[in-house]
Amino acid sequence: MKSLQTWSLLVLTLPTENATARMRFWRALKARGCAVLRDGIYLLPYSEERENVLRELSVAIGESGGTAHLLRAPSLDASQEAEFRALFDRTDEFDGFIRALAEARKTVSGQSAADLTKLLRRLRKDYETIVAIDYFPGEATTRAEVAWQDFVAHVDTVLSPGEPHAADRAIRSLSASDYQGRTWATRRRLWVDRVASAWLIRRFIDRDASFIWLTSPDACPANVLGFDFDGAAFTHVGERVTFEVLLASFGLDSDPALLRLGVMVHSLDVGGASVPEAVGFEAIMAGTRERAADDDQLLDSMSPVLDAMYLHFAGSEKGSDTGGRP
Question: Are 189 and 162 in contact (CB under 8 A)?
Answer without folding.
Answer: no
